[in-house]
Amino acid sequence: MTELPVFTFAPASAHDLVFSLDCARAESCTHSWIASFHITENMSESERRGLAVLAAAHGAWEARGDGGTRLVALESELDDALKIIAAREDESGDIALVCANQEGAEGLKHWHRSAWEAGYSLRLASPKEWAHLRSKPLCPLVICAGAVEPEFIEDECRQGRQVIWDTSKEDENPQYTDSEIVAYRISRAHRTFLDACTPPSSSPLAPGPLLREVSPLLKRAMKLLGDPPPAARTLNASPAPLRNIGASEQVIASCPQSSDPILTYQPCASGGLWRISARLDAATRRALLALVAAVAYLAPPQATVPDGVEAVHRSGALFLFNHADRARELSAVIGRDAVSESECTGHALLGPASAMLLLEAGEHTHRRA
Q1: How many CB atoms lie within 10 A of CB 316?
Q2: 210-236 b/e with 16+ CB inside 10 Å = b?
Q3: Residue 234's beta-bridge partner residues?
Q4: Is-above-0.85 flag for pTM?
């Protein structure tokens, strides 16, 4: 019997842990793998089960702790449920993030975070792996970061997908602070993360330069983020303009210093191509994602769960994990919870660092009024 590959994960912030899990899933491609977590000895039973559910939601066959111990008791209801889900053919996800080097692509990590915070199910892959996975009728939206062959982009558009192609680069000496607090819904629910990413009042860093000639569509998407709406910004002092603008290419935003385009949209076959040459701040990136998702007729499956709660649909089951540092109230939770081994008929309280795995889930989970 062939041993499954084991990927080890150190303690990390919520997004960094999820990103690492998705990178492991991409590295294993279509093969089963095991997630091994450090420092689980002092965790409660609820936290250990929660980690197992989180790992399964992101494609792991099994989850282990220190010394190779299983995080889920053998032959328990949760163990049986996870085995059934792992054995089923896996879905590709709502959004595909394609890059030749997942771990080394900072741009990909930024987009991963924005999509994850917005509640979308993600699938990381190299261009070669995605060519194999895309035969499934899912992933209407593809995000490509870094050096990707134009032929690959054109083929994705011909398949009817909306494609975001981000060729931006970070400045060697950053001059601007990101608007992370505005956009990061899940992570900001954790006070430790909030304190860590809030710049001190004496920080010399300022918000990035305002983009020019912003399309009304992007302005509308920015407005939906908050009141007052954040402005569209870049984090580059002098972003490189896009070249070879086609006759049918629509300018969505321009450089701060000139009218050179840095964000464009072009209908392509039955899909569309969104080209970016500037590193966008978190709020602008989140708004653009919402705009492109709307064009792709894509909505997050659990968009109204409370802040701090991640929701993932996989193989007909609904995974719920609370990344916040306090309990969250959920309503319309209907189904059999394999974690607590109980029936859920409506209201539920999800503790910090804990999870639910709803089998035969009924109505979607909504924010409690």
Answers
A1: 12
A2: ebbebbebbeebbeebeeebbbbbbbb
A3: 280
A4: yes
